[in-house]
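PROTEIN FOLDING TASK:
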Amino acid sequence: MTQQVTHVLVGYSPVMLAKLDTFLPERSVLVLEEPGVIEARGAVEQVAGLRCVAELRPAPTQDEEHPERVIEAVDRPAGVQVVVPAAEYGVVIAAALAEAWGLPGAGPKAARVLRDKAVLRRTVDGSGIAQPAFATVTSAAEVEAFRAANGREVVVKPANRQASLGVQLLDEADDSATAWAHATEADEPALRAKYEGAARFLVEQRLYGPEVSVEALVHEGVVGFWNVTAKSVQDSRYPVEVGHALPADLPADTVAGLRRAIQQLATAVDFRSGILHAEWILADGRPHLVECAGRLPGDGITVLLDLAYDSDVLVNLIQVLSGAGAVPELPVTQGASVRFVTAPPGVVTAVDAAAAEAAPGVYEVHLNLAAGATVRAATSSWERAGFVIATGPDTAEAARRAEHAAGLVDIRTTETDGAE
């Protein structure tokens, strides 16, 4: 392998690689990914045009029970400076490699906690962080037993997936067996390798209130730069996000409470260095933890951060992970928002985004479908039709512009028996 490698990515992220290609030297990036994921995503062909990529190497990056397999298989590049978790399913191995190579990272303990929502719940219990009643479950009967003891309005979800996959909000009359079937069948075959015993599930008390996320760069356990993002969720049993806006316009005491909570969380899980993307529900005005990831946020939030703070969150993350020092709080320069595009179920016959692209404040319009695609009601983030990103002088105006432009995207469909 080339001696020029300075950055190792655990997990294949075309978005991250495209950005790194704009400022990293030629052949300076080693990408590690599961062989099945490489094949399913056509990654070999996609990285061929990226000058920064030295090698895309097959490796068991998602075998979280045996991180030593990757440590033993991958020699430490002589000039390596950074190990980045480029995907949710690479968080544990990235932390293990960084530890083995003497580089900053989340730490193996924190990485394992953040990759399992049930372990996270148990870890923060007693830390002062508010959270709902919860239980790990292995059957629909155990979900039903929890509902009998804690109230029938609950959340059922996989403990170690992403993108709202398999997550459901159950009301009083909803059936536990139906929810269990959906949670256990939901999968991401193009993104996730299957390892024995990897599937785990959680049921928890349902909370009500505004939803937010906190993005925080942490250096040696101390939160530096941080941001609060307001979240909008579709009105459905499937809590798929339909929009984000930042920085969230919240009362000063609520913001202060979230600042305390994210530092408490970093301390409770023993997180060392990297980025946290923590989701919260403001129930009765107090932040209650939903879940937390130890990698860059998805849903376009990284773009929103760059726009709102006139900065580059990936560059800032690399600064922290290289040991170059903390990233301080940054001034807000404008509001930024993303709104996801919806389309009526059916087979797509025509798509026109011209009006949206020309709307005031629009920064980007991206669509995930074209004529011939089938649209179904979204049960996870992967099933959304696309998104619009907009900016404004403040957060409220940015959100208004993004929502307005998303409504201008014209996706026409015809009904089919196969669409739901």
User: Anything to note?
Assistant: The chain has 14 helices and 19 strands.
